[in-house]
Specification:
Elements lengths: L2 H10 L4 H13 L6 H28 L15 H20 L4 H20 L7 H20 L4 H20 L5 H21 L1
């Protein structure tokens, strides 16, 4: 894999895409009836709470020189954005739960907040991969709901596993992480989301 291909894959499979993908999967694939207007409003709320607000705050931190780069290649640059992200995910999950949306959506975002907090704690030792945590968490969502509702998601799960392998290779190619950081990122996302949704 060339460096340019690795960069494009990292952009396409960035962690910020999974809350929207997860919400869309939950609202369209699980046995709930969601009106189209409510679907659009819900996706807009998820996008605001898990992307727009955290990104805006990260930009503010950058302007205040609390972080040295918006790419957050250094572990120290991730601390404040991770904390803001976890809090934002938590409040988004709580709000969506309060207005009566599917419980799996609330649990998915709460589990994602837990993954972010775990990574925040681990930053003092090393830098777990957020990219692999994202695709691992989405895979955990598919696995748990497949078991919970008897969904036939094997082709989609196989695709996620293959993409995770390519994404891990891309992150190694870019020297963004070592293999241990990739493994910790992937397993933390997969196991936490899987456990929270299956047992929640």
């Amino acid at each position: 894999m060339g460096r340019k291909a690795a960069q494009w894959l990292s952009y396409l499979l960035h962690p910020v895409v999974y809350p929207i993908l997860g919400a869309l999967f939950i609202l369209k694939s699980l046995p709930y009836y969601i009106q189209s207007q409510l679907l659009i409003v819900t996706l807009a709320l998820v996008f605001t709470g898990t992307y727009l607000f955290p990104v805006a705050i990260s930009f503010l931190f950058y302007r205040m020189q609390l972080i040295s780069s918006l790419e957050m290649k250094e572990a120290r640059d991730r601390r404040w954005p991770y904390l803001v992200g976890a809090v934002s995910y938590y409040f988004t999950a709580s709000f969506l739960g309060d207005i009566g949306l599917p419980e799996e959506l609330r649990l998915f975002l709460l589990a994602s907040a837990c993954v972010i907090m775990l990574h925040l704690i681990l930053l003092q030792f090393h830098k777990p991969s957020a990219h692999l945590a994202g695709i691992g968490g989405f895979t955990g969502l598919l696995l748990s709901t497949s078991l919970k509702y008897g969904l036939g998601l094997l082709p989609l799960l196989a695709c996620c596993f293959v993409l995770a392998g390519f994404l891990g290779s891309a992150r190694l190619k870019l020297n963004a992480h070592d293999p241990n950081e990739l493994a910790v990122g992937y397993l933390s996302g997969l196991l936490i989301v899987f456990g929270v949704i299956l047992l929640g």
